[in-house]
Write a structure and sequence with these properties.
Elements (H helix, E strand, L loop, with lengths): L9 H16 L7 E6 L2 E6 L5 E7 L2 E2 L1 E10 L7 E2 L7 E5 L2 E8 L3 E11 L6 E12 L5 E11 L9 E7 L2 E9 L2 E9 L4 E6 L2 H6 L12 E2 L7 E11 L4 E11 L8 H18 L3
Antiparallel strand pairs: 1-2, 2-3, 3-4, 5-6, 5-11, 7-8, 8-9, 9-10, 10-18, 11-17, 12-13, 12-16, 13-14, 14-18, 15-17
């Protein structure tokens, strides 16, 4: 008696084995979606799409729709491009942090590090720091415009938010978005942004993707709208010397109000109401 598997099943077993083997040694640099975790928080970053960071949860409740980066070199007539269009990044991820380096050969490299610091389980605060370094790989000074776009959905739902951007000496230092007791504050450590823009829905996103050069309009407030998120964007304008580099360092602090648990009084009232309904339904 033969104990060999039927011939038609061999390709299936072989394919599964190959996939498993590949997943074991596939280098981290090939990854596109990275998941971060710390304390009460988790975040997901799609490094291969302008979806970018599209999830930031506290105790399982998501607060974020999209946060990502665009760039433009000088006055490129094709406009801004999301950084994922540069090409596949080299990625190093480790639990609560990820570092991704995008390189445009002979022109520039862009290194982004996210670090997630969640609060204690059951608490409702969280923090993400972002360190960005842009290096000039060309043989001449590089006029580089760098953009960040943010769209949060506080308390796990869209609409009802207010965004405010703050100035400091003609530059832009901070952005807040609030919805009731929920709030997100982004502070720029260095350097302050040259331009900023607050708007609703995908209006700013559409301008960044319009296919022609765009400068943020310095509108400093938006919302609330019952259906649309209050969004904001920041812009840095650099002239980077040959072999030089610039750094952008920012910090996001998120605080949301927990979903209130039923109080003893509300539970008693619900019980009384259910009893009254039951009495009414009983036959006379």
């Amino acid at each position: 008696m033969s104990f060999l598997l039927p011939f038609h099943r061999k390709p299936i077993v072989t394919a599964v084995s190959i996939v498993a083997a590949l997943s074991a040694w596939l280098p981290c640099g090939r990854a596109q979606i990275v998941n971060l975790s710390s304390g009460n928080s988790a975040a997901s970053v799609n490094l291969g799409s302008q979806a970018g960071m599209d999830s930031w949860t506290i105790n399982g409740q998501n607060q974020l729709n999209q946060q990502w980066f665009w760039y433009r070199i000088d006055n490129d007539p094709t406009g801004q491009h999301s950084i994922d269009t540069i090409g596949a990044p080299v990625v190093n991820a480790n639990g609560n942090s990820v570092d991704a380096v995008y390189t445009s050969a002979g022109l520039f490299s862009l290194d982004i590090t996210y670090t997630l610091n969640g609060g204690n389980p059951g608490t409702w605060t969280s923090d993400i720091t972002e360190n960005i370094s842009i290096s000039n790989l060309s043989g001449s000074a590089l006029n580089f415009h760098f953009f960040q776009y943010s769209d949060f959905a506080l308390a796990g739902s869209s609409g009802g938010e207010t965004a405010a951007i703050f100035q400091n000496g003609g530059f832009f230092s901070k952005a807040n978005v609030t919805k009731g007791p929920n709030g997100l504050s982004e502070t720029i450590d260095q350097p302050l942004a040259n331009e900023a823009e607050a708007d609703l829905g995908t209006a700013t996103l559409s301008r960044l993707n319009q296919g022609s050069p765009y400068t943020l309009n310095n509108s400093l407030g938006s919302g609330p709208d019952p259906n649309l998120d209050a969004t904001w964007a920041l812009e840095w304008d650099f002239t980077i010397d040959v072999n030089g580099s610039v750094d952008v360092i920012k910090d996001k602090k998120l605080s949301v109000a927990p979903i209130p648990e039923p109080t003893a009084l509300s539970l008693a009232l619900l019980g009384a109401g259910a009893f009254i309904l039951r009495r009414k339904r009983l036959p006379a």
